[in-house]
Design a protein that fits this description.
With 307 residues, this protein is an alpha/beta fold. The protein has a single domain (2-221, 260-306), classed as NAD(P)-binding Rossmann-like Domain (Rossmann fold). 42% of the residues lie in helices and 16% in strands. It has helices spanning 10-19, 33-39, 79-96, 131-144, 165-174, 191-202, 222-232, 242-251, 255-262, 270-276, 284-306, and strands spanning 2-5, 26-30, 44-47, 65-68, 103-109, 149-155, 158-159, 179-180, 185-186, 189-190, 210-214, 220-221, 239-240. Helix 1 (10-19) runs parallel beside helix 6 (191-202) and helix 3 runs parallel beside helix 4 (131-144). The radius of gyration is 20 Å and the shape is globular.
Length: 307
């Protein structure tokens, strides 16, 4: 039996179809059972909250594998809230599924590395730059010390059609927020590549064990990335010196958000390639266009609903 948390989120919606092909029972833990039942009428749906241990009583019966996707992704929420969901929530899931569970697959984040100098392999001695990254790093520690067989995917920022993370980013770029002049790289992961990683990790006979970086095949220059998105949005990019963009971000209370967005990102996927046969397969520019087209359609639909 699989226990899946975070099944109704963007990542969960894309991954659960793969899990469903494994021929095992699936139990979905959710705070919104009505929504989950509409989305997944074939699976068992259980009401529960990872932050409330009492609501988790009995969820671990006959569960042998945990797919832990639930979490709070934010660069502005208080540290206490991030740790309550991402750390204590993970602890609660581990305890609720003991002693039956034998394995856990966890969606962590490259945020555990912070700013990258050079290329970050899984043993890179980085330091999280945000409370979000700190919370993911601590959740990883709990999992490694749990005694369960574990597969931890450190996932680069996920993009693709339907990604709520990019609604805010694309909105800012569309409004004309300037692109800072920087030589930094950015490294992202298309949702289909993330799904591929989970599929390989669950493949019968898979020897997946430990921690893996999951990202597209290579990073791109941040400036080129942002300018491509702006042009796809139908605008001409405005590039400004870094100090000026930082000043504008500070006035808008977005300094931390900007720093996180533009920090240098370059992750080695060689371990996943070697041990899992992970092969990123997406046309980067085409997928950016698909995402922008979705954003424009989504925004238009929201305008109609409001109007």
């Amino acid at each position: 039996m699989f226990l899946v948390t975070g099944a109704t989120g963007f990542l969960g919606q894309n991954i659960i179809n793969e899990i469903g092909k494994k021929g095992k029972g699936i139990r979905i833990l959710t705070t919104d059972p009505e929504k989950a039942k509409r989305m997944y009428p074939k699976y068992e749906v259980v009401r529960g909250d990872v932050t409330d241990p009492k609501s988790l009583e009995g969820i671990g019966k006959d569960v042998d594998t945990i797919i832990h996707l639930a979490g709070l992704v934010s660069y502005t929420k208080p540290r206490e809230e991030l740790f309550r969901v991402n750390v204590e929530g993970t602890r609660n899931i581990l305890e609720a599924c003991s002693p039956n569970a034998k394995k856990i697959m966890f969606s962590s984040s490259v945020s555990v590395y912070g700013e990258v100098k050079g290329v970050a392999k899984e043993d890179y001695k980085g330091k999280p730059k945000t409370p979000y990254g700190e919370s993911k790093k601590e959740a990883e520690r709990l999992i490694r010390n749990s005694g369960l067989e574990s597969v931890i995917f450190r996932i680069a920022p996920v993009y693709g059609k339907g990604s709520p993370y990019w609604l805010k980013n694309l909105g800012l770029l569309e409004k004309g927020f300037p692109v800072p002049k920087t030589t930094n790289l950015t490294h992202v992961a298309h949702i289909l590549n993330v799904v591929q990683a989970f599929r390989l990790g669950l493949k019968p006979g898979s020897k997946a064990q430990g921690t893996y970086n999951i990202a597209d095949s290579k990073p791109v220059k941040f400036v080129e990335f942002a300018e491509t998105l702006i042009r796809l949005l139908g605008n001409e990019p405005k590039t400004m010196p870094m100090w000026l963009v930082r000043s504008l971000a500070k006035m808008k209370g977005m300094s931390n958000y900007l720093d996180t967005l533009i920090m240098n990102r370059n992750y080695s996927i060689s371990r996943a390639t070697r041990e899992l046969d992970y092969k990123p397969r997406t046309d980067f520019k085409e997928e950016l266009k698909r995402m922008v087209d979705w954003y424009i359609k989504e925004k238009s639909g929201q305008t109609v609903k409001k109007g």
